[in-house]
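Standup notes
- HV: blocked on the assembly model, inputs below
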Amino acid sequence: MWNQTKLTETLDIKFPIIQAGMAGGVTTSEIVASVSNAGALGSLGAGYMDPKEMQTLIQDIKQKTKHPFAVNVFVPETPKHNPEQIEKANKLLQPFLNDLAIKANDGEVPRVFEQQIDKIIEEQVPICSFTFGIPSKPVIDKLKEHHILLVGTATTVKEAILNEEAGMDAVVAQGSEAGGHRGTFDRPFENSMIGTMSLVPQTVDHVSIPVIAAGGIMDARGVIAALMLGAQGVQMGTAFVTSEESGAKKQHKEAITTSTEDATTVTTTFSGKPARGIDNQFIQEMRQHENILPDYPIQNTLTKGIRKAAAEQNKPHYMSLWAGQSPLLSQKTSATDLLLSIIKDTEVILTTFNNDS
Amino acid sequence: MWNQTKLTETLDIKFPIIQAGMAGGVTTSEIVASVSNAGALGSLGAGYMDPKEMQTLIQDIKQKTKHPFAVNVFVPETPKHNPEQIEKANKLLQPFLNDLAIKANDGEVPRVFEQQIDKIIEEQVPICSFTFGIPSKPVIDKLKEHHILLVGTATTVKEAILNEEAGMDAVVAQGSEAGGHRGTFDRPFENSMIGTMSLVPQTVDHVSIPVIAAGGIMDARGVIAALMLGAQGVQMGTAFVTSEESGAKKQHKEAITTSTEDATTVTTTFSGKPARGIDNQFIQEMRQHENILPDYPIQNTLTKGIRKAAAEQNKPHYMSLWAGQSPLLSQKTSATDLLLSIIKDTEVILTTFNNDS
């Protein structure tokens, strides 16, 4: 059967489909539980989240599903906190702050990672996934001691190999089509903008852990194509952003469902790290300053108020409208119905195919 | 059967695999005939070619195969011939010219397109494919009157629609993974860097002519994945560059077979149009001047001598080493053996899959 792979066995899920752990409030406890209850794997995107808030959400999810789910965390970096650079960045952001009538942020970023890991262990979360790198050996060892399965993110073959060497149980191969932040950690991101069609088979040939394809996959066609490339499962982000249970802002959902395949761009202007989203006025005006903006996560903190106020004041041209390159395949439906239709379509395509050949 | 699609019926070929019509001497009459004799579609890349030279090659191909083949031509543009800009560009190229001990080129570009079309009609070439745009209605009408099938190139959904509207019989959807020149003609190429996994299903949903997937496809996995995305066939370029019958320079073949998936970049430095190749010294040193270089095809003419002398003097760091993002899947074999193994592997994968499900 198409859905019985080493990945589904390892993660104890029925269908090899993972809802990406998108940060920024998209992954409500409802969407995570809906996806896991449908037999796929829901993920809480805890990236920037306060550890206590994260714990409450995990407890919510556990109330709503008895099936495995994942929590996604961001491997921390130690950014250079340069007050002069922050002042300069805030000056560049001033027109947006003015237009939204809000104050600048001081760029202080609380470190949450270690506490997040403790909460994940305390709550016995079945699966922990990582973005922006590989955690230290002590962190990996601690999670493994508690029988928590680990899933890493790679954007090159080398990053996938590093994930396997570090002891990950599976690795997401994130193609350049993917929406939101690039998981790149090993080299300049420009070199790591490799399309899913290229990245997946080359990765599969060089690691022995299950590879999860991500980037551009929105429907049954993408799921089967990814499996044919050698992936054991897929991770879908944008497809779930527009679902009813998603916590994405309504302007974000609307922007995706009305977008076209050529409307996205990769920008560091919102967070200091490259991410793919729908091009808009904020990105266009800040693009020329990309080289002088503070590193992630400082820039992310500086623009936090802008993004929030822009949503409240219905100014999507200042929002981070993360999206992959397949918006024409997006749907307004529930996450459950999306999954059910993908599973049904997958079976229809495969049956038709079997009968034909 | 997997190989019976509307595309194979239209083009009268046995397997839905097209060897891309790469310019620059890669597509010898041997490789075109080998591919067509194996039941796929060989293409002569006549892009920059003198019409007489093209005619001789077409006659060679017709001697070597009775099966359909294609000739690929470049839809011409009228570049601004600015002597001052050419002088400036040649000044920037001077260090390379000096190192190779060759003279600068005056940037005069003969217009070959109309004569190429006449020769294609005269030789009754079965299929004519286009890159860099859509030819004028009179050209299309003339080719159609002579029952020549037409295949266009698109890098966005909109470009595919424009191809269908112009009367193309099929369209290549060229994903961002693809090596060599981007076929983009409708907007800035940055917006048209869409991964194959995203581009193919979205294109299939918006045109009724057969879609041919290109970009990152090197083996049976890629062929099946493309078909599952809704493509009716694939076009492969890089996979054939390294084959024995290919006329690619030995340094070019060697660069691909020893490359990695993250080693390519998209550059306009060689030709004035964006193209994907293995990053090297020439690209790195000229990148900063990209904005002031003459348009295609003038820049292409200016660097012609450099590329030729670099190959002769074994200086691959000055050569245009066009390659897609899947070099780890490249093979040193004959084009015939490559095709036979892809066809065999495709059938093995599908049989295994059928038995499993």
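- HV (later): unblocked. The longest helix of chain A spans residues 335-356. The domain at 6-76+111-249+330-356 of chain A is CATH 3.20.20.70 (TIM Barrel).
- Next: hand off to the docking folks.
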